[in-house]
Design goal:
It is built from 11 helices and 21 strands. By secondary structure, the protein is α/β, with parallel strands linked by helices. The protein has a domain of 215 residues: FAD/NAD(P)-binding domain, CATH 3.50.50.60. An 8-stranded mixed β-sheet has the order 7-6-15-16-17-14-18-21, with helices on both faces. It has a 6-stranded mixed β-sheet with strand order 9-3-2-13-20-19, with helices on one face. The protein has a 4-stranded mixed β-sheet with strand order 1-12-11-10, with no helix packed on it. β10 and β11 form a beta hairpin. The longest helix has 28 residues. Bound molecules: 8-demethyl-8-dimethylamino-flavin-adenine-dinucleotide and P-hydroxybenzoic acid. The site of P-hydroxybenzoic acid has 9 residues, from loops.
């Protein structure tokens, strides 16, 4: 027997984009149902982003889920860029008057789930065969299998928040969808360890052996990354090999303060830049990784997803409260203008900070010259800083 449900907005994907959208809509009295192909435990355990822009912090506060972040998050007023051992601090506070918040995506997701579930929000987890249909009609549908039963949700709007490998983007006809992509010739190997961070701020290092990043989740838990080959597997990287490589890349001064220990999470992520246009088709909107991917070097993926959802929630609320569709109609163009600027920054910082196997000696000299210019020019440092703390929403 097919189950039928109706709602105002059907949200595909319970990652940060889908959960936050559902919460912002609920706060304004707009109903939604959220579906995901995974379950809550799985989603909460995905170790990913760690750095939140002020705008993201504001959005989480506005949604009513900022209390634990205010207590446990670590505000950072700067970070270090290192090149072959030379370190330069980007003083975010002095250059922009703003700072960022170190608070893990696992925690953001947990806070959002807790509030949504406490408020009795409707979820379907472990769904399969998800098909968004009738996107151009006034009552689009999302059909799927749940607990061995077919389910159909009929709604006014569909929000495709189902990440890079989701089905929403694929539901846009090929002749309408245009995609832009760059795949980088390396990955990041990430490690979590229950040890205090090597420094109280982040260090991004370019070394002749490859990129390295020192980040953290708390004052007792560190998150480290090293650039690796795309063909590497986590089995190729014992903890010993990882610590040895990280120490070499961050240079002797930082390495002297490095506290190593057993890793309790180790994973490899490829690096990609990707944008799909448009971000609206009929009555379906794309938001977050479903529409765009950035390499993690600028710490922008989660922040972009949150910015999309802020703009989308305002547009939908405006429709339901005032019957005004102006923001719905401008959503795709407005969001994409910002997305491309953030793509540019993430690409530029990735290009500056990694070792590219195909770089000629000339390109290596260009990297070094760009770093030296950054160190000497306040204008160049400010440009990095204003992108890192987050560009304005519009
Ligand atoms: P998500 O988090 O991928 O969530 C999508 C959800 O959709 C579900 N789904 C489906 N549900 C139903 N039907 C289907 N057919 C479905 N297909 C998929 C999935 O199960 C999932 O629950 O996308 P969202 O919400 O757009 O959020 C995006 C962020 O997760 C992502 O951009 C960031 O994690 C990127 N990122 C970083 N972003 C930052 O802002 N700062 C950082 O410091 C940062 N570091 C990182 C990162 C990503 C990384 N990896 C692993 C890719 C570091 C790394 C290593
Ligand atoms: C992280 O802490 O996971 C992290 C921090 C900064 C980045 C990417 C990832 O640029």
């Amino acid at each position: 027997m097919r189950q039928n449900h109706t709602t105002q907005v059907c949200i595909i994907g319970a990652g940060p984009a889908g959960l936050l959208l559902s919460q912002l809509l609920a706060n304004a009295g707009v109903r939604s149902i959220v579906i995901d192909r995974q379950d809550r435990t799985y989603i909460e355990a995905r170790v990913r982003a760690g750095v939140l822009e002020q705008g993201t912090v504001d959005a989480l506060n506005e949604a009513g889920v900022g209390a634990r972040m205010a207590r446990e998050g670590l505000p950072h007023s700067g970070f270090d860029l290192a090149f072959d051992g030379d370190r330069h601090r980007i003083d975010l506070a002095a250059l922009t008057g703003q700072s960022v918040m170190v608070y893990g995506q696992t925690e953001v997701t947990r806070d959002l789930f807790e509030k949504r579930i406490a408020e009795g929000a409707q979820f379907f987890f472990n769904v399969s065969d998800v098909v968004p249909s009738d996107l151009k009609s006034d009552s689009p549908t999302v059909s799927f299998q749940h607990d061995g039963q077919p389910v159909t949700i009929t709604c006014d709007y569909i929000a495709g928040c189902d990440g890079f490998r989701g089905v929403s983007r694929q539901a846009i006809p090929a002749e309408v969808l245009k995609t832009y992509e760059r795949v980088y010739p390396f990955g990041w190997l990430g490690v979590l360890t229950e040890r205090p961070p090597v420094s109280h701020e982040l260090i991004y290092a370019n070394h002749e052996r490859g990129f390295a990043l020192c980040s953290m989740r708390s004052n007792t838990r560190s998150r480290y990354y090293v650039q690796c080959n795309l063909t590497d597997t986590v089995e190729d990287w014992s903890d010993d090999r990882f610590w040895q490589e990280l120490s070499r890349r961050i240079g002797p001064d930082a390495a002297a303060d490095l506290q190593t220990g057993p890793s309790f999470e180790k994973s490899i992520a490829p690096l990609r830049s990707f944008v799909a246009e448009p971000m609206r088709y009929g009555n379906m909107f794309l938001a977050g990784d479903a529409a765009h991917i950035v390499p993690p070097t600028g710490a922008k993926g989660l922040n972009l997803a949150v910015a999309d959802v802020r703009i989308l929630s305002r547009a939908l609320i405006e429709h339901y409260k005032n019957g005004n569709d102006h923001h719905i109609d401008s959503y795709s163009a407005q969001v994409l203008a910002r997305v491309w600027k953030v793509e540019r920054f993430s690409w530029q910082l990735s290009t500056l900070m990694h070792q590219f196997p195909d770089h000629s000696p000339f390109e290596k000299k260009m990297q070094r010259a760009e770093f030296d210019y950054l160190v000497q020019s306040e204008a160049a440092s400010r440009s990095i800083a204003e992108n890192y703390v987050g560009l304005p929403l519009d």
